[in-house]
Amino acid sequence: MSILKKLFQPKKPTGTDTPKLTGTERGKYMPDITAPADERFTKHFILNGGKFLYCTDMDEVHESFDNILLENDWYEQEVYCLDPKLEKLFDGYNLKFTTDKESSFLLSVCENLIADDGSLLISSNQIKEKKLKELPQNFVIFATTSQIVNSIGEGLRGIKKKNTGQIPTNITTIKNFEPKEGAKDFMSYGSSAKNLYLLLLEDL
Known about the structure:
This protein is of the alpha/beta class. The chain contains 6 helices and 10 strands; from the N terminus they run ααβαβαββββαββαββ. Residues 105-180 form the LUD domain.
């Protein structure tokens, strides 16, 4: 699987005539509904205004994370994190892990990446019972390509299967990333105006 190759090497037109659009045809920038899930997620995510850092191994994950901290001057800052595994994974950056809403950013994983609309599915496994507005302004999400699923329904079934006996609550999606004025290196979404980085690790 090579998301970047698919994304940045689009197929060249085979004909010379410009096709006429009808009411049922999709725009040329819309993702192909028959394309693989990883390609559809990537295209939808970008169409939503999203921006991710694609990594082929953990060395690249750490390099990208280091660049995020450097870009935003987040070294030796407080980081909102509820995941001990992430704290251990990113423990070499002089960060102060806490649960203070005023932290510089939230560091978290997610449940799934949704190909149909380019959204991120999260639950109480990541944010407990907090509402999005109760979390820091900035998000850094660490996910893998194996977490890409076709639809929200598929993601919900996966959550149920993984959490037999105790299904998590507070399940929601993050989508519609709109660049925030004056913060072009971030992404924001919806009325909550969250700024988000997605560290995406290839694991398939």
